[in-house]
Amino acid sequence: MSAFHRDPAGFAGQGLSVAAALVSVWVSAAPGSWSASAAPVRPAVAGRFYDSEPLEPPPSARGQFISSVSWHWRVDGPVRAWLCRGDRCAPLRGPRGRGKQLRGRPADRPLYFRFQLPEGARRAVAIDELQLRVEYRPARDGVYR
Predict the structure, then answer these.
(1) Cut 0.85: pTM above it
(2) Residue 138 to residue 58: CA distance in whole angstroms
(3) What integer best gives the mean pLDDT of the chain?
């Protein structure tokens, strides 16, 4: 007699399907990150806002929430900066940093940089090498903590 037996009801196969589904949910709900770069921006008029192109998240960010962001750009003069999602913007302290300004917001929506020359600025500035990294994680029990 064989040490293996046939499962006439097929429950063993269903158990494997359930396990595979649980692994799939766990993998898609794991923490992760996405990165994007934007074309250069050239603010030229003091007091006016200049926005980067939208930085689009990948499909893997769907259903996830931002835990932190990090950014980098190169600039050749003084400029004020924000990171925006829709019409809400969070100030950024400089051309390089990391923060939790958008913590708890959905990670599957486009973000963009916003720049402004300070009042009294008399020349345009070049802002290039714009980079953003968004770290995300799933909500627990439907609530981001």
Answers:
(1) no
(2) 15
(3) 83
